Each structure stands twice: as C-alpha cells, then as structure tokens.
Records
---
Amino acid sequence: MRLNHVDEAGRARMVDVSAKPLSRRTAVAEGAVRMSHEAYELVSRNAIAKGDVLRIAEVAGVMGGKRTSDLIPLCHPLGLDAIIVECSAEPTLPGVRIIATASVTGRTGIEMEALTAIAVASLTVYDMVKAVDRTMVIENIRLLEKLGGTRGDWRRGEE
C-alpha cells in the first residue's frame, strides 16, 4: 500500500479528498490512566485539590478533539457533528478509563479526532493528579472501531 500523505518526491502533503462522497463517519477510541491506589481513591471520591478530575478531563477531551487539525499537521479540519468523552474511575486498573466517540458527515475519517480526545483527556488526568502520584502511566490509547467511509467499517478484534 502506498502512503498517500507523501508525493512522488517524498514531500508531505495533505490528501485531496474533494472527489470523495460525503458519508456519515464515526470513530470510537479508548485509553486509560493507571495510578496508585491512593490516587485512585482520591479521584473516585472527587477529593483532588484541583477539582473534579473526571468531568474536567471530559471537557478537555472534547476541546482536544475539536482542535485535532491544529495539532496533527496533515489532518483535515472537520466540522464535527458530535464528540462525546466519558471518563470513569476504574478500580481494576486502578485509575481512569476514557472512551471517546466522534462523528461527522464528511469526506475523510474521524479517527484522529477520537484518538486526540483520548490523549488530551489522559494528559488532563495526569496533570490534575500528578501532585499525588507521579508514577501514573497513560496507556492503551487505541482505536476500537470506525464506521462509514469508502473503506467501510472496522472493529478491533475483527482484523
């Protein structure tokens, strides 16, 4: 498969998607921030001094997803139809699990917006909790599924 973000001379370029038809596209991504039991207890009880970690990380994730084309050089700016970021305290980690669902009716995929939302939400959790636990690990940022587009649907585990 030839990479379409590089021209014949090897220069990076934004792909021209003008000939592609509009279609409904959705992407779901996930990630996690693993932390100490002590930090998890504070997050789950909403007792972190900086504020409500889960809700602030959700808002930060939405903001990050909306700014993806400003952060990733060759991404197309998209008029998102929706982006939902859900953060939950997960005792089995222990830590915070984050899910982002992004959708658009457009000519190019929405995967990067969902993944960027996860990255920004994860970094926000880290920033808000680092005074309590500097050993936290941001992990498993990955695409779970993408629906729509010319290449069709894809789900992790079905590849």
Note: DSSP finds four helices and five strands in the chain.
---
Amino acid sequence: MELGIHINTFRRPTLEAALDAVVEHGLRCVHFNLSAAGVPSMPERVDEELPGRIAEALTSREVTIGTFSGTFNMIHPSVDVRQAGLRRLDTVAGVAAAVGAKVVAVCTGTRDRDDMWQAHPENDSPEAWAELLAMTAEALEIAERHDVVLGVEPEVANVVDSVAKARRLLDQVGSPRLKIILDPANLFHAGDLPRMAEILDEAFDLFGDDLVAAHAKDLDRDGLAGQIPAGRG
C-alpha cells in the first residue's frame, strides 16, 4: 500500500506547483483530477500536448497516479447527459492511459437531475439498476479500449449505496476491468455509525482482491462525511 492524496487538496496556479506541494508534504502518489492541469475535470477533448506535459511533471518529481478522476452521473435521467458523460470518460481514460494511470475512478450516479451526489427515491428502482448495468457495459468498452480499470466508489447518495450492492454489481457485470474504490465514510447511512466495525469487516470480506484503492476521511458526530478537518472527527 502507498499513501497518497487528492491533488486538488493543494490549490495552486499550475500543475507543477501543485505537485511540488505534494512532494513537500512527503507524498509521492496522488488521486489525479484534470482540473489541476487547468482543464475541466471531464473535458470533451484536450490539447494533444497535455498528456505529455502531465507525464513530464509527474516523472520529474517521481510522483505516481493511484487513481484518475472520471466521475459523471451514470444514471442521469437524460440520455443526452449520460451519453455526454461517456464521451468525456473516453477523453479522460485516454489521458489517464497516456500518463500511465491504471485506474479511472467512476461513480454509479443518481436520478437527481442537478446534483450527482444527491440521493433520489428512484435510485432503488429496478429501472435505475438496469440503466446502471447498461451504462457500466458501455463504460467498460471504453476501459478496454484504453487498457484501464474502472474503480467504482460506493456512495450513500448513489445507486450503489452499500457493500452488498457493490458486490452485486461486480458479480453481475463479471468484468476484470471493474473494481472497487472503498471510501468507508461514504458507506454509512443514517444510524449506521454504531455498526461501523461490522460494515467495514463486511466490505473487506466481500471485496477482497477487487479493492484497488481506499480513502480515509473523518466523520462528524451525525455521520456527515467530508465537512471537517482530519483529526477532528
């Protein structure tokens, strides 16, 4: 295991400056987001020289990419929005492959039209699950084309909102290019904090070798994730 950090933790005017900050903190691995390189996180296209610039910045500082951000709403109610997301994923996966990244992080999405991280009652519907399976199949074709792995992160506001659903997705899809990124803080529904150890044990038991990365962050007393500094949860 190698300890890393989200590159956007360090907001700097250039990619090179952000990577310098990573190194200054004694780290050599990042979760990469294209916004750190001055383009949208999920662009329609990028300039031809961008992958080379990213690769040079990483190599010269001996920094590697653990995971590469490719999240979009995979079950947005609009077909046009979903297809645009797939096109952007294709661009991101191409850049990721060009700079040596092996894992592109994705999320399973929500039926909420406006916020990819907002839960929706229809997330539990058979229709949402069927749409997720269809979209995952298309996303995996992109992963195959670029020789990368897709890392799905279970998230309480998304369709895959539990350990059991994540395992179900892996088993139903049956692709070696679909893996799990585990952020335990995003697994706890309201009232679940007393069961934290049980839920974590279940996750590690069910995911096993399908885990490709794990996140760590603090929880507030009510279980709200990502709102407080590390060490104060």
Note: The two ends are 24 Å apart (CA to CA).
---
Amino acid sequence: HKAAAAEARRIVKDFDVRTPSIDVPVGNLSGGNQQKLIVGRELAGTTKVLFVAQPTRGLDVGSIEFIHKQIIAMRDAGTAVFLVSAELDEIMSLSDRIGVLYRGRIVGEFDGATATREELGYLMATGAPPEPDEIAAPPHEEAHA
C-alpha cells in the first residue's frame, strides 16, 4: 500500500492532477484530471510498445507539454509508440512516421520530418494522393517597389 500511495502522490504531483487527496475515487475527479491520472499511470511503467489515443485531449497547455515530453522520452528509451490523435499538430510534432487512414484503410505513409499539412490534409479528405498541382503553393511575398 505504501508503494501504491507513493506512486499516486508522484503522478498527482508530476501531472498536476487536481484532487483534494489521493484517496478520492478517480470517478469523482473531473474528466481532465481522470485523463492526466490515467496517462501518468500508463507512462510510469516500462513497456516495449505504447498505444496512446488522444493522449492530450481536453488538457491544459502545461499538461500537454509534459505528456509530449514523456512520450518522446519513452520513444528515445526504445519504446515503440503508436499515436492516434485528431490533432494534426500533435501528430506532426511527435511522429517519426505518419500513416493516414481513410475509410478504415491506410492510404498513405509519410516521414514525420518532411510531411506537410497540405499533403496530409488532402489525403485525409480524399483518400487519394494529390496531383502535384492540387496542393496550393505557399503565398509569395510580393516585392514592394
């Protein structure tokens, strides 16, 4: 019981879980605090593969940054991380490889370092890769005379 209580205190502190006490049932916490507690518990162990779905949905900016750092640290330690998120920025910032699903099928795979929002968005919306002229080029700065 002592080890479990110590781990609960660590998660509450590290993940800024707002609770009056570690003895409060998880079901009595707000949804965001429940999520931070569960993410903290899951990231605490050693594992070879980590599946995370919407790991930061509904969390404050500080908690999002902390969870992102923890996911990256696990990846760097050799854990294979499979991330599912509706947040394209989250996917692009955390992923080495990005797979795009469309109607239940993988329709594209990209290198995380070089993928663009335009490519990913087009494939997500249509299920087919764009033709070179179908993705709008970034606007140019016009020279002022």
Note: Strands lie at 49-53, 80-84, 97-102, 105-111.
